[in-house]
């Protein structure tokens, strides 16, 4: 009947109508007849409605006569017949097209209208004329059929017989050129690179040294080949103190025993938190040096292994904090506040055992012992044993390359999902960078093949990205984000991280934005578990899988996308729950050692299928498959935690009510957006783009607008770092019970105010236009 309406409109000299929220009604007022455009129900509640004047054709009243009346009746009958014929022919054409969609090829000449976050992906969808696309079940099957474990094996073989892929060096440049050529051979729509000129700290001409000084005599304990980037260079001497994992709680436990850590060299084992966070805790406690080792309890067969690492509490080039390191940038003499300014080195567990044997202090607590024999917490006051730590690292200027390839969308090419993997590594880096790079190349090949050969037309673009300098703290990825910070949050709607996707086979680790929980959960249900005869990856984590989601760490390349740029992210991988992958970040991270993982290439293929399904689903549906209502649940969780301290806050003359009201406003905003999506015309591209704009902004609007990205780059109130986060506010409220005298009331007021208005601002942005927001709490 839409065709009939258009025909009638043309007969009366009207213009074509495509905005289907308007309805056309015949109005009769005396003898004047015209076509009136009436707004939808929300506009009928009151106020003026917009009626373009060119749609009102006022005509002088004609003379009444029997002949005219007869003519009008005949004309009306003819118009009804014409409308019926046009409608019938249109319906018959659609049915013929629908029959062609069922020929088993997976192709269809109609556009499926996907139900937003529908519970059943298999349901048939309404068909309307449009560009050729695939129904989702067919597209998902095609992806699965084309992904080949053999290709993944061939891609990973690039890491075999190589010693190092250090950022900016020859091997890194060679593999960058190889990836660029591969992207071009896949016939991607665009292939390009992104150059950055950065400062890196590398090992000096001599190895760093760790020595034991006893009664004035110095004995070299170890001189490892590995080093820690961004350590302070020089030599320091201090008494050794063991602090378990180097958590804040571990340092507090030592300090409660009246042990001063000023001027000491602390020793901690790897795990729980990043090396940079351990070093920051050591610096805060007053230590002048730090040593980290791989404990045999968690890392088997690593007695002599020494890992590489970096000590920058942040991401990106620490000498261009908050702005990009492009060649034309005039770099000011600044540095990141996350640089440690203490001497840091990694050593083997074997060397730590020798050090413990020289310490005559207290024995370690049972939960601190780990796998090194003779564990001692500290030296006695009478002991004359000290540790000397000498670091010879030097700063260098290097050019790094990020390599990109893009499949452009047919409707919104300026909106894209990014799939990325780190390329560089200290040592062979098979698990650290090889697996992700192999998956990146295979996904680029398969998705391009689906588009170029099978005819799939993604609505939005897909970008494949290979990052350099990831070992130094996601430098390549962060510099790209900083370079395009003004636009990326409005264009990139998801980042999928492929790094270290296979470190074992028994369990699965997931980190993601809440916006992607629903899509990730549904995707895992549709991907077969390669280690079992039946069942999906979803069975690994069970129905309550969200509780297994772990926070993103600073060592995850997805972290700056979420916490700095406000882009939803997902990062996942296979691992062994009881034992960490022992070779990660060491020179033993080889293809041969990685192949000891059971069904390595099948696991890589399963991980690639999950990533590919997420990317394709986000480019397939009319609306972005981002579950914005999840953040209402996350806010409710925090509200329940805050509620416990209502009386303590009230005693200070403050209230939590405004914060709770802001959460309610956000809930109402999500409800309003849900209604707008349900009532909208999915075939109207203007409306659909506007709705997707609102969905895309949800993550970005949780970046605190009251902080400078240069001084506090990780501004996300859920996942960022600093006093602006909801977690920091909660910790400050907890101090009202445990140590009230340490609470700064003015700081607490500021935290409450900024958190309230960040959430309120997110609610206002989600509603849409400013005249639709309610600024009364």
Automatic annotation (TrEMBL):
Residue ranges of every copy of the Peptidase M28 domain listed in the record: 402-597
User: Does the keyword section mention Glycoprotein?
Assistant: yes
PA domain span: 236-297
State the CDD domains in the record.
Answer: M28_TfR (cd09848), PA_TfR (cd02128)
- Subunit details: Homodimer; disulfide-linked.
Summary of the function given for this chain in its UniProt record: Cellular uptake of iron occurs via receptor-mediated endocytosis of ligand-occupied transferrin receptor into specialized endosomes. Endosomal acidification leads to iron release. The apotransferrin-receptor complex is then recycled to the cell surface with a return to neutral pH and the concomitant loss of affinity of apotransferrin for its receptor. Transferrin receptor is necessary for development of erythrocytes and the nervous system. Acts as a lipid sensor that regulates mitochondrial fusion by regulating activation of the JNK pathway.
Keywords, A to Z, come to: Cell membrane, Disulfide bond, Endocytosis, Glycoprotein, Lipoprotein, Membrane, Palmitate, Phosphoprotein, Receptor, Signal-anchor, Transmembrane, Transmembrane helix
Membrane topology per record? Single-pass type II membrane protein
Q: What is the name listed in the Swiss-Prot or TrEMBL entry for this protein?
A: Transferrin receptor protein 1
Q: What family does the Swiss-Prot or TrEMBL record give for this protein? A: Belongs to the peptidase M28 family. M28B subfamily.
At the top level of its lineage, which domain of life is listed? Eukaryota
